[in-house]
Amino acid sequence: MTKKYFIIGNPVEHSLSPKIHNFWFKQNNIDATYEKKEISESELPEVVKDIRDDKIYGINVTVPFKQKIIPFLDKLSDLAKKTESVNTVYKIDNQVVGDNTDVYGFKMSLINQNIELKDKIAFIIGAGGVVPSIITALKDLSIKKIFLTNRTFSKIEKLKIKHPELQLLKWGEITNFDIVINATSVGLNFEDKIDINFKNLKDHKIFYDTIYNPPMTNFLSEAKLGGHNFLNGKLMLIYQAQKAFQNWNNLLPNLDKQFFDFIKDD
Ligand code: ATR
Q1: What's this model's pTM, rounded to 2 decimal places?
Q2: CA atoms within a 13 Å half-sphere pointing along the CA-CB vector of 66
Q3: For 3-100+237-263, which CATH superfamily applies?
């Protein structure tokens, strides 16, 4: 029987995940479909029940449900517990389990680009769903210091309770850093601009945007103009998908030329 997979979120219409997973299903001769499902919060229990009843084989979870889905699951992986963020759900031994593959996605995107962050300084902008995963990944990569800012300060104060080593900055303040990561939703609309001034930075920095659509946000365009290195969120998306696919199918899909050619314009 054809296995059914979904990405659930709201909004979810721009997600590239169906294209990626359906490509890999075909490449590996797996009889499965992967579709988008825009849901409201009240539908979360139903979706989880469909997994429990084997009507759905697995789901990815995106904004704004990565934390909200947790109470409905039977079990969490260690990383999902640590980050309180679930992006991949499936059944193991009759239990509906939530896992987090965003940490892997973020780490692997850096490794893919030969970006070494050991003993470096990171500056994260935002406090949304993906931030705990980024913090966890940066710590795993032996970062020296993490600065964090957010428009709403109280949200980063909450994150500091769990990660006391974080250094909090007021909105608009900047600091010396090696890598700055936009983890806000500012940039999803082409004209969006983060109101933090990154002009007059010394040396080459790395600007990382977790947004992949549009591929060149204002944040990244300014980095390019300033002569800095820059990377959007597409590789993170690809690697989190790769790990989710491995969890579901026991098979790590190839990131070969054919694959990158297939998604290069998305
Ligand atoms: P969620 O919080 O549901 O996970 P998200 O899209 O992952 O949603 O996160 C939204 C992030 O973008 C937040 O850090 C938010 O800042 P606030 O906590 O102050 O709301 C940030 N954000 C959204 N619009 C913004 C704007 N116009 N300027 C600055 N930050 C913004």
Answers
A1: 0.96
A2: 21
A3: Leucine Dehydrogenase, chain A, domain 1 (3.40.50.10860)
